[in-house]
Structure formats: C-alpha cells, structure tokens
Amino acid sequence: MKEILIIEDDPEIIKLLEIHLTDLIYKTAKAMDGAEGLLMALNNDYDLILLDLTLPSMDGVEICKKLRTEKDTPVIMLTAKSEEIDRVLGLEIGADDYITKPFSIRELLARVKAVMRRTDNQQSKADNTATITCEGLFIDIDKRKVLLNDTKVELSPKEFELLVLMASNPGRNYSRTELLNMIWGYNFEGYEHTVNSHINRLRAKIESDMANPTFILTTWGVGYKFNEDISL
User: Fold this and answer.
1) Max Cα–Cα distance, the chain, nearest Å
2) Of 14 and 125, the one with more pLDDT
3) Between the CA atoms of 35, 84, 114 and 7, what dihedral angle is there, to the nearest 10 degrees?
4) Full DSSP string of 115-170
5) Which pLDDT score, from 0 to 100, does residue 46 have?
6) Would you say 42 and 77 are in contact if contact means Cβ atoms under 8 Å apart?
7) Pick from 202, 205, 149, 124: nearest CA to 141
8) pTM of the predicted model, to two decimals?
C-alpha cells in the first residue's frame, strides 16, 4: 500500500486529507512542524509528500530544497498564496505539483492520482531500459545515477527526468510545452520558461561547451532534442 506524508500545521486540513486519502486506500503519516516533517521525509520512503508552504520552524520551500538534495520523492505543495512568483518558485525547487488554498478535495485527489500515475509510468519505463550510454555519458535509470567520463553528475529530479526522456528518444524533437506537460504535468501550462531554465542547468552539468552542446540540441522554432548523431 502506498503511503503519503502530510506536512501541514492546520489540524482540520490534516483530518480532511487523512479521511479522503484513506478512502483511496493510501496510508498516511503526518507532521505539523517543518523540521519534524523534513526528518520524517528523509528517514522514510514515502510515495508522495503533501507539503504546506508556511510551517513552524522551517517553511515548505526550505524543506523541498533540502529534500531534493537527497531524495526524489514526489511533492505537491499546498499554499494559501496564489501569486505567480510562488508558483514558479515551487517549480524551480523541484515540486511536482502545486495547489492553492482553499482547494476542493476532488481537485486535490485528482492531482494526487495524477502524480502517482506519472511516477508509476516513469518507473515502468525505467524497468524496461536499465541504462543508457553514449559519448562518455552513462545513465543508470533504475539507480537514478549519471556519470560523465566516470565522474558522478548531481542532477535534480526534473533534470534527470528531462535527460532520461530525451536520451531514450534520440532525434525526437520536443517542444517546451510537451516537455512541461510530460515532466511537470498539465497543471503548469503557461510556464514554459521553467523548461528553459532546467535545460540550461542540465547543459551546464553535462556539456563541455554550452555554445556547442554535444548531447542536448536546440531545434530552432520547436524546442529541444537529444543528439541522434552520437553513438548510443
């Protein structure tokens, strides 16, 4: 049975989430303090984390940043704020989805199921293709490990997912909207610039020359593709 960690300081919201998530046959764990929630997230293997933005002792942004240095557990951020800057910030630090309060429980449950389904699909693909190797780049999909000329490359979860998607389909052109929908999900439509910033950070980590990339090429007027002319 899949387990979801709820990091939220409002007991009424926690109670509501526990009731409906249990109805969907999910186990739940909870923390009402940011530092406690981070400790639980790091020390246990949850299938999803529902993370409030404003928490005692440590806020959701800081929790997500610290979590992303060690784990790739999917995160849906919950917040009463609706400004675009908060939404973009959630994307940039590695949140998988974002929902503002007050939210309908039906919408939240739909987001939960969508993130779970996307994670399951990615795992299924990883099971079918264990590793990818080309031009000194080695990708171990199952272990989520990347080496470049035998040196480990530290990637964020979204950077890794972008790399695996494109490297698994060399030569296939992806528009920014496609990448946004496939990696982040439909809920972030209109935030294509986030794709650009992640691609730039990914290139900075794996390309020896950012001006003349070897692996991830720009298809002008379309988006990006993985170079099909290098040997896999």
Assistant:
1) 56
2) 14
3) 20
4) HHHHHHHHHHHHHH--EEEETTEEEETTTTEEEETTEEE---HHHHHHHHHHHTST
5) 94
6) no
7) 124
8) 0.65
Task: Judge whether 165 and 171 are in contact, CB under 8 Å.
Answer: no
Q: Which of 85, 33, 81, 82 is nearest to 59 (CA)?
A: 33
List the structure tokens of 232: 């896999």
Q: Which of 18, 189, 191, 205 is nearest to 105 (CA)?
A: 18
Residue 11 has pLDDT above 80, yes or no: yes
- β pairing state of 27-31 and 174-175: unpaired
Tokens matching residue 143: 């272990």
Q: Angle, nearest 10°, between helix axes 157-167 and 193-206?
A: 80
Instruction: Write down all domains in the chain, each with its CATH number in brackets.
Output: 3-124 (3.40.50.2300), 129-226 (1.10.10.10)
Paired tokens of 32: 């009402």
pLDDT value at position 187?
61
